[in-house]
Amino acid sequence: MTSAVSFQKASRHFGSVRAVDAVDLDIAPGEFFAMLGPSGSGKTTCLRLIAGFEQPTSGSISIFGERAEGVPPYRRNVNTVFQDYALFPHLSVLDNVAYGLMVKGIGKAERHKAAKEALSLVRLPGYGARRPGQLSGGQRQRVALARALVNQPKVLLLDEPLGALDLKLRENMQEELKSLQKALGITFVFVTHDQGEALSMADRVAVFNDGKIMQIGTPEDIYQRPKTRFVADFVGSSNVLPPDFVQRYSGQHRWGSLRPESIRVGRTASGEGVSARLVSTNYLGATTKLALDADGLKLHAIVPAGTALPVEGETVMLTFNREYLHLMDEPV
Amino acid sequence: MRSDGSQSAPLGLKVAAACGLLFLHLPILLIFVYAFTTEEKSFVWPPPGLTTQWFAVTWNRPDVWQALSLSVRVAAISTAIALILGTLCSAAVSRTKFFGRETISLLVILPIALPGIITGIALRSAFSLADIPFSFWTIVLGHATFCVVVVYNNAVARFRRTSGSMIEASMDLGADGFQTFRHVVLPNIATALLAGGMLAFALSFDEVIVTTFTAGQQQTLPIWMLEELIRPRQRPVTNVVAMVVVLVTLLPILAAYYLTRDGDQIAGSGK
Which residue intervals define the domain ABC transporter in the entry (chain A) (predicted)? Predict the structure, then answer.
């Protein structure tokens, strides 16, 4: 099967900066694919390579089997939802949405009909006559989405589309985007620095760091079985355990990852386990996050709300189920 | 007239401000009054009598019409050149990064910072060096040097306030470079260009120094007025023309002022 988007050793260097460095990537048609990473990790440059705003320095990129190098953005069947939405302030919402059809030379009646349908799709019917300046952030985001979708792209690129929205709106939009993607069957490529967003929405996630992909996999893969210390730490702030520590529990001299929620905190300083000093507690609502110090090794544990908590400074006993200790591939 | 929260200025300051404004504008009013005087050889205050005959006299003087027509044509063509070059240059400077960008920006602005007499002398010696006879086109070229700056400054300021991703969004939606310019860039910089163009027109219309150095036998309106002041014949005709010049230049400048002021909303990005 042809990939929707395929990178073969694609690089984009800006002078000595390797924004994207020999990336191999295959995104399946109809997939909801997330590119996750800290800022400056190359995920947005990857998106711009797909959109055509950047050209690879070396390597190649193909979109549905067609080589994309040298093809300008306006000849690619790919549309983008920009981080700042980039709506045209001088046009009405309806004309914004109809813009792509207008430049293709489609008649006014037809393109306005299609634009109205797209606005209904994003649940903004009747907003066509307004100006972008009169809309709220969430509404602008929907207009940007409708403006891209009206062109029926084969791949929809979303650059941190929820970054500017408040928490409640962001959660609503996450669900909406997900169901929209299911209903339309279009390949979505989504850039975010928010690991929760990537894990909850995507079919597969690529974790970026320093212009390279550290790991590609399903959200569960990435979360449960991180391959490197970076992935373990960046996705879900896992406890990264040094090889000497891991050897005591698994017999293997390798880096380990232990999820904070897998650690049980006991008050009795006896029995089998790791004794640690409680440094601080951090109330998070449904859970409480504990910062612990086990003989110089900094650990985090997350316990459900309502658990009887030790006092700060007290020594506690940490236990965990051996099967939750994940051994990583990263060489020691 | 006291608005909430702000204190009224002391009387002394008000008087000083009024005096300053009077000093600036009374002489202009005097020019207007002398356009109606009955004394034709010299300006006497108060005017011995009032008449409107000079308007008819001015209307029937072919030299006035020639000078006016030349000034309008020069201003129109210099402005047109400035609009094209100024827009292209500002787009290049604000949309792309290239080696020497800051230098180019400075070099474009330089003609308006330099005294006109230097621009004038420089152009004159360059024209004679290249054996270009002085003509209508040499005046146009001279004026275009400073008209470009006005358009450039206006357009650059507007480009700075428009969101850069808008152009990418247009390309992304299938518009090529020309369509993007026509449907996205131009509507967003139109008022800035109009304002810049009007200022450029007004600047060109009353320019004396550069014109003196780049004109051959032709007389633009300001040059014609200078000549008239030396010859004391039908003096109030000059005043009538002066009134027209004030109106012709003031109106576009006022319009430009209002256009750029309202432009703040137009150029707001999609954020």
Answer: 5-235
